[in-house]
Amino acid sequence: MEKSISKPVSIYALGGLGEVGKNMYCFENENQIVIIDCGVKFPGVELPGIDYIVPDFTHLKNNKNKIRALIITHGHEDHIGGIPFLIQHVNIPVIYAPRLAAALIKNRLEEYRMADQVKIAIYDSESTFKIGDFDVSFFRVTHSIPDSFGVVINTSEGRIVSTGDFKVDLTPIGPDIELQKIAELGKSGVDLLLSDSTNAENEGYTPSEKNVNDSINEIFNEAKGRIIVSTFSSNISRIQQICESAVSHNRKIAIVGKSMEKAVEISRGFGYIHIPDNTIITTDEVKRTRNNEVLILCTGSQGEPNAALSRIASGEHKDIHVIPGDTVVFSSSAIPGNGIMIAHIVNLLTRCGAECITNSILADIHSSGHPSRQELRLILKLFNPKYFMPMHGEYRMLRLHAELAESLGIPLSHSFVLDNGDSLTLAKHKVSIGYQVEHGVSYIDGKDINGLADAVMEDRKILIEDGMMIVALAIDSRNNTLIDEPTIYNRGIITRNNEKTINELTTIISSTVKSKLMGKTNFAEIKNSIKEVVSNYLYGKIKRHPMIIPVIMSKN
Predict the structure, then answer these.
(1) In contact, 433 and 11? CB cutoff 8 Å
(2) Rounded CA gap, 203 and 374, in Å?
(3) Contact between residue 445 and residue 88 where contact means Cβ atoms under 8 Å apart
(4) All structural domains of the chain
(5) What is the C-alpha separation between 256 and 296, in angstroms, rounded?
(6) How far is CA 172 from CA 100, 280, 475, in A?
(7) Is the alpha carbon torsion for 197, 201, 204, 208 positive or negative?
């Protein structure tokens, strides 16, 4: 009898561990790589000019011939937003996605003119696929977007289950979570479970999406003027509830923001959002409609500078401006790091006379799509895994989830709280710590798929915090003389009329350059000397290290 050859499976994340966002989990053996999700993370104020943060795909580029498929669990941006950037770097033979996520992915790829570069196969809870050495199946979960699934990967070394994003919602907007299938999987054996940790700090149960209806209706009943609701364009369940309430309160609906318009269009086509055609108005029609008959639905609940709500708040939107009496609802909780941006938008709106309703004022307007501790206990009990890897959350959330698992009988030695780039190895139904995988982040500015290097971001931070000084001078390289006094341009360092400081710097730079020109030198050495003396002088004056840019023009 021929002995089967072991093919250990490595499990690692390129994004999603130690953070909320840019989820990307990989499953690799000697023959293949299967990826689950490829998301983005939205930047805070500390990353100026950046639109998205995506995982570093270097490891995948180095192993591009092993990639067999990308599996998508659901259609939120932190799970699908990185796809256009990924497929520019590596070939993805096929993307497996639920129906709604597939439509949202196709739309995103069309924006980047990539719709024909990858095949998208739609799956449901009954689908099974053989992807190389792996047998893949699915189970439906409840979340804040329809068509959300967990993934089962059966390998020759054991069974791996990833819950995806979920909550145990027993009164969901849409189909039920498949608890029976989850229990059956647990009964037949799960070697390694990867489970959502986002709400691991919250005891009890996450409220059902249906519990939000009372809060929404209360707002519609009390608002005397226009209502502006900002939420994620991919939070389809929330959008449906808001629109239902608007229709029942005889309000017309203006949809603002390209991503919101497209998400609503796709979801209406699938029957996930029901809005009569005569209820929808254009932004131009808003000013011709009575204030108490208007709902404006837009993006920007995280204070994103380019989102619709930010443009409305700052007066930059061509049709819609905030007026006294408006009620603005932020229908999502702040992603960690975005609090400052949200506070800025709230201040702008309040200054214009709007009443702002945020999570801190009306806490139950946000019903999270993620499981609280009792739901985590239930899922751990049902799956009863031999080994456990908390995923999707900041480090403290992952740690709390592992400790929760320990309280249910899974020893800490069988739980692995990892960082992006750490790996586990599954071999013969046993899991152990594996090797390090190259990982990191790429910063996306506009639609440049290559991403910006860390050095570029460091330069931006220096410009913001310390300013910039350009030193321009002309040299006669034949005679090794300085043709004229240096010209100094500064931004964000010292006031333009600070003649004394400029004169002192000019004298110091001239003396330094003339001294260098008396001996054997080159332009690189002169520039370095200028940077050194200017940096030392400015640090002595203002205790800052601004960016110094010497520019040398040569005669002859």
Answers:
(1) no
(2) 7
(3) no
(4) 9-204+368-444 (3.60.15.10), 209-362 (3.40.50.10710), 467-555 (3.10.20.580)
(5) 7
(6) 17, 26, 74
(7) negative
Distance from C-alpha of 531 to C-alpha of 554, rounded to nearest angstrom: 18
| Distance separating alpha carbons of residues 22 and 40, to the nearest angstrom | 4
- Cβ atoms 293, 252 nearer than 8 A: yes
| Residue found by looking up tokens 């000013």 in the block | 287
Residue 550 CA: distances (Å) to CA of 168, 456, 509, 514, 542: 61, 18, 10, 15, 20
DSSP H or E run through 539: helix 523-542
Whole-angstrom Cα distance, residue 51 to residue 448? 10
At 271 the three-state DSSP class reads: coil
The one catalytic residue among 51, 191, 196, 466? 196
pLDDT digits (tens, 9 = 90+) for 200-224: 999 999 888 777 777 788 889 999 9
Q: pLDDT band at 521, cuts 50/70/90?
A: confident
Band of pLDDT at residue 44, cut at 50, 70 and 90: low
For the entire predicted model, the pTM comes to 0.81
CB 67 within 8 A of CB 60: yes
Which residue in 74, 370, 401, 414 is the catalytic one?
370
Say which residues have a Cβ less than 8 Å from residue 212's Cβ, sequence separation at least 6. 238, 241, 364, 365, 366, 367
Question: In terms of DSSP bridges, do strands 280-281 and 327-330 run parallel, antiparallel, or are they unpaired?
Answer: unpaired
Quote the CA–CA distance of 432 and 437 in Å, as a whole number. Answer: 15
Whether residue 370 lies in the annotated active site: yes
The CA–CA distances, whole Å, from 342 to 347, 356, 444 equal: 9, 11, 21
Nearest Cα neighbor of 39 from 59, 57, 66 is 57
Stated length of the chain:
556
419's tokens: 């960082």
Beta-carbon contacts of 271 under 8 Å, excluding residues fewer than 6 positions away, are: none
Distance (Å) of CA 88 to CA 65, 71, 79, 109, 114? 15, 17, 17, 11, 9
